[in-house]
């Protein structure tokens, strides 16, 4: 299967400048996909998840246009071809 | 209903012939009161278009002065305005754009003590602030007062826009329940911003404001618009109202909180402990003149350092503070400073937690130059 994980620009430096990560491993859930990303790009996942493995409160993860916070959280199911988008709060004005 | 003069009828002719606007819509705009929090990158285009469109009363909240580094994006202000209050140049520019607009200028920092008083009485609030502390303050005040909050935020090449706090819609805390912890999210001063980006996002905020006032179209309430200028892609994602939201759901948040700027921890209570962490420019100058044994640390970014610094200072950008902790001498007093005192307050708190004797220069280099330059 192939999933795409889109990053906010503030996380590009932690993925060697890339904003779209391809995940080819078999994943059932968003949490699985983030584990794969974390093995390759630990700096990305450190900034998305707390030390306790929860999504940080200034971060939202979307599968398509649906927030996983209002689905099954990290247990939200993913299927081949899904795009997982990480959106972090920004403060600039 | 509010009348329109012949001059106003000519001025708004291309707008009043629009279907669903007409003279009634124009009169509605003239009767409307919109508050813009921040007269910077987002507030500039939003204010210009709202004034041009004929919104009758525009309030502006800002306490800053124009800096040369603002000019590539803050189009309310010109070169001649550098060093003067932003609200002065905003007033002159907006009065020229549309003299029929009444301007209400609030030259102050929005705080938990004045936010409700300032926001009350407006129909719509436009959030164009540049820090998380004020964003949460604006959101919570809008929830308490039942005011729509037209949101915009930017970083480098990306922007976000939405409409919060409508009758049935989510608020900012439904999307982001709490601010990020200190140092985790860089500011525009640290990360930079494409000058035209706030132009895009600020005009989206102006558009959403006009739609709300006129009752037109589908607002961004319940959706977050993500603007990517490099990919030139606009995406929207759903933002449901969260029944567990502490602000608009359970209503646990019943008083306003002043967060430390740029971080997610409430500021210390005003019991003297916070005040003791700050030195005024005159106090610092007097101590330096007296040869006090202190280490001066600049926590700005290298490009800011290159433009000028306090004599004898050492550069430790805020993002590298943790890594540099071991290099500070715990037997000496540290004074940290930045541009306006926000980043240095963050640094001072972290250094104090690590056991150092530390103060922050109140108001940063800007106030130093104002008072001693």
Q: Give me the CATH architecture of the largest domain in chain B, please.
A: 3-Layer(aba) Sandwich
Order of helices and strands of chain B: HHHEHEHEHEHEEHHHEEEHEHEHEHEH
What is the average per-residue confidence, as pLDDT of chain B, rounded to a whole number?
91
Principal-axes shape call of chain B: globular
First-to-last CA distance of chain A = 40 Å
Query: Which percent range describes the beta-strand content of chain A?
Result: 15-25%
Order of helices and strands of chain A: EEHHEEE
Can you identify the CATH superfamily of the largest domain in chain B? NAD(P)-binding Rossmann-like Domain
Mean pLDDT of chain A: 94
Under CATH, the topology of chain A is which? Ubiquitin-like (UB roll)
Give the helix/strand layout.
The complex is a heterodimer of chains A (93) and B (373).
Chain A: E1 3-6, E2 20-23, H1 30-40, H2 42-48, E3 59-63, E4 66-67, E5 83-88
Parallel strand pairs in A: 1-5
Antiparallel strand pairs in A: 1-2, 3-4, 3-5
Chain B: H1 6-11, H2 13-16, H3 22-31, E1 33-37, H4 43-53, E2 57-61, H5 86-97, E3 102-106, H6 115-119, E4 124-127, H7 132-145, E5 149-155, E6 158-164, H8 172-175, H9 188-191, H10 197-214, E7 223-228, E8 233-238, E9 278-279, H11 281-289, E10 294-298, H12 302-306, E11 314-315, H13 321-324, E12 333-337, H14 342-353, E13 358-361, H15 364-372
Parallel strand pairs in B: 1-2, 1-4, 2-3, 4-5, 9-13, 10-11, 10-12, 12-13
Antiparallel strand pairs in B: 5-6, 6-7, 7-8
Helix pairs in contact in B: 4-5, 4-10
What does this structure look like?
The complex is a heterodimer of chains A (93) and B (373). Chain A has 93 residues and is of the alpha+beta class. Helices cover 19% and strands 23% of the residues of chain A. Chain A has helices at 30-40, 42-48; strands spanning 3-6, 20-23, 59-63, 66-67, 83-88. A five-stranded mixed β-sheet of chain A has the order 2-1-5-3-4, covered by helices on one side. In chain A, helix 1 crosses helix 2. Chain A starts with a strand and ends in a 5-residue tail after the last strand. With 373 residues, chain B is an alpha/beta fold. Chain B has helices at 6-11, 13-16, 22-31, 43-53, 86-97, 115-119, 132-145, 172-175, 188-191, 197-214, 281-289, 302-306, 321-324, 342-353, 364-372, and strands spanning 33-37, 57-61, 102-106, 124-127, 149-155, 158-164, 223-228, 233-238, 278-279, 294-298, 314-315, 333-337, 358-361. In chain B, strand 2, helix 5 (86-97) and strand 3 (102-106) form a beta-alpha-beta unit. In chain B, helix 4 runs parallel beside helix 10 (197-214). Chain B starts with 5 loop residues before the first helix and ends with a helix. Residues 261-276 of chain B have low confidence and may be disordered. Chain A binds chain B through residues 8-10, 47, 56-60, 62, 65-67, 69-70, 85, 87-93, and chain B through 38, 40-43, 127-132, 135, 152-160, 175-180, 184-188, 191, 193, 198, 224, 226, 235-240, 242, 262, 264.
């Amino acid at each position: 299967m192939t999933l795409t994980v889109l990053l906010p620009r503030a996380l590009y430096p932690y993925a060697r400048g890339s904003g779209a990560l391809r995940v080819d491993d078999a994943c059932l859930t968003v949490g699985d996909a983030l584990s794969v990303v974390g093995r390759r790009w630990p700096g990305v996942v450190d900034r998305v998840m707390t030390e306790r493995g929860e999504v940080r409160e200034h971060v939202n993860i979307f599968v398509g246009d649906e927030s996983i916070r209002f689905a099954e959280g990290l247990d939200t199911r993913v299927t081949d071809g899904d795009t997982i988008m990480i959106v972090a709060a920004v403060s600039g004005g | 209903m509010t009348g329109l003069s012949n001059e106003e009828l000519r001025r708004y002719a291309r707008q009043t012939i629009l279907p669903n606007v007409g003279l009634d819509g124009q009169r509605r705009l003239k009767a409307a009161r919109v508050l813009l929090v921040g007269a910077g990158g987002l507030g500039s285009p939003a204010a210009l278009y709202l004034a041009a469109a004929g919104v009758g009363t525009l309030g502006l909240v800002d306490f800053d002065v124009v800096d040369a580094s603002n000019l590539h994006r803050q189009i309310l202000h010109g070169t001649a305005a550098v060093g003067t209050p932003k609200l002065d140049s905003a007033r002159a520019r907006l009065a020229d754009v549309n003299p029929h607009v009444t301007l209400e200028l609030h030259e102050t920092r929005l705080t938990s003590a004045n936010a409700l008083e300032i926001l009350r009485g407006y129909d719509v609030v436009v959030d164009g602030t540049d820090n998380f502390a004020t964003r949460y303050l604006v959101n919570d005040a809008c929830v308490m007062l039942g005011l729509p909050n037209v949101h915009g935020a930017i970083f480098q090449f990306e922007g976000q826009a939405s409409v919060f706090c409508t009758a049935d819609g989510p608020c900012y805390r439904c999307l982001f329940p709490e601010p990020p912890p200190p140092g985790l999210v860089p500011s525009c001063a640290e990360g930079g911003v494409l000058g035209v980006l706030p132009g895009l996002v600020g005009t989206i905020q102006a558009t959403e404001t006009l739609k709300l006032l006129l009752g037109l179209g589908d607002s961004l309430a319940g959706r977050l618009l993500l603007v990517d200028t490099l990919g030139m892609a606009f995406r929207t994602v759903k933002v449901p109202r969260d029944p567990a939201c502490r602000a608009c759901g359970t209503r646990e948040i019943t008083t306003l909180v002043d967060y430390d700027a740029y971080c997610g921890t409430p500021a210390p209570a005003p019991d003297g402990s916070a005040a003791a962490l700050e030195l005024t420019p005159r106090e610092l100058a007097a101590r330096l003149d007296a040869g006090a044994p202190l280490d001066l640390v600049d926590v700005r970014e290298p490009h800011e350092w290159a433009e000028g610094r306090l004599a004898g200072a050492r550069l430790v950008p805020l993002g590298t503070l943790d890594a540099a902790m071991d290099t500070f001498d715990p037997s000496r007093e540290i004074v940290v400073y930045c541009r306006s005192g926000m980043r240095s307050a963050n640094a001072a708190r972290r250094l104090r937690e690590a056991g150092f004797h530390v103060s922050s220069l109140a108001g940063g280099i800007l106030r130093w130059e104002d008072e001693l330059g």
